[in-house]
Amino acid sequence: MTRISDSSARRVVILGTGGTIAGTSARAGDNVGYVAAQLQVDDLVAAIPGLASLSRRGVDLQVEQVAQVDSKDMSHAVWRRLTAAAERHLKDPQVCGVVVTHGTDTLEETGYLLQRVLSPLKPLVLTAAMRPADALQADGPQNLLDAVTVALQPQVQGVLAVLNGVVWAAAEVRKVHPYRLDAFSAGDAGPLAFIEEGQLRPLRPWPQGLPLGAAVLDPEIWPEVQLVSSHAGADGRIVDLLCEAGVQGLVVGCTGNGTVHHELFAALLRAQSRGVAVLRALRSGSGCILPGSAHDALPHAASLTPAQARVELLLRLLAARRR
Ligand code: ASP
């Protein structure tokens, strides 16, 4: 994918997918019982004076409603549509960056998918909100303005998440709090940059990588990859049942340094020997699995969350189909 071939490009495309950022409440000030994905993305844009002033200064803002979902209900079909739309716009030399409005619940999964599939040389910026659009403390407008500001920066690349004044690598970020406005973390990796009063303050290099390409998502039917978790009292029955049902991949949320209850571990080894792809991921939300334990007989997903590891395994299985 080329970067900006027209150096005067000042177009940012905003793709709407729903989420709390587009949510409204029946009762004023209800930050819990609101309904996500109610407002159209063009209404969100129209409500932010800072975006109107960018337009007056020559920034061409275009919007497209790709989906309208609470991101807890994110589907593979929406992922395919969103990835195709993002790829199409990023290829346009007139476009300097793309912004995606999203829910916070599965932002870490969508972000990971977009980075692995597109690895863009332009900014592809996810943003979201912890409060609905009509809340007293609505965080969506500032987050969306910050995301567009980041998408306009010619030196920035990769899939990013901009929330609460912090720029994260979307493939590293994870939601760590159900309520606070500072609900995200990247574990040990930390933020990539801060965005303060419209000024970007970078801390480390922008994400890079070899893109798999959006065509990897083309198959109508995707491999089945399920998540299981190790815990006190775990046994292998769930794994055996999933294998009987024809699962192709299993991610296990692990305790400690990627450890698994011995009964579950035995079932996962059986699954692996039957050709099911297995990946270990940390249950704890930060840190990185260190090699050297007896559990190394099952591969691990380093610092990915279990939900991101599921995306990784899904993409590996999809990519293997193309070879
Ligand atoms: N359930 C909402 C969603 O993920 C939560 C949010 O956006 O904050 O769409």
UniProtKB/TrEMBL annotation:
Similarity comment: family membership: Belongs to the asparaginase 1 family.
Keywords of this entry: Hydrolase
Residues covered by the Asparaginase/glutaminase C-terminal domain: 225-317
Annotated L-asparaginase N-terminal domain residues: 11-201
Gene Ontology biological process terms in this record: asparagine metabolic process
PROSITE patterns, per the entry: ASN_GLN_ASE_1, ASN_GLN_ASE_2, ASN_GLN_ASE_3
Gene3D superfamilies noted in UniProt: 3.40.50.40, L-asparaginase, N-terminal domain (3.40.50.1170)
SMART domains to which the protein is assigned, alphabetical: Asparaginase (SM00870)
Active site: 20 (o-isoaspartyl threonine intermediate), 20, 104
Protein name per Swiss-Prot or TrEMBL: L-asparaginase
Alphabetized InterPro entries for the sequence: AsnASE_II (IPR004550), Asp/glu_Ase-like_sf (IPR036152), Asparaginase/glutaminase-like (IPR006034), Asparaginase/glutaminase_AS1 (IPR020827), Asparaginase/glutaminase_AS2 (IPR027475), Asparaginase_C (IPR040919), L-asparaginase_C (IPR027473), L-asparaginase_N (IPR027474)
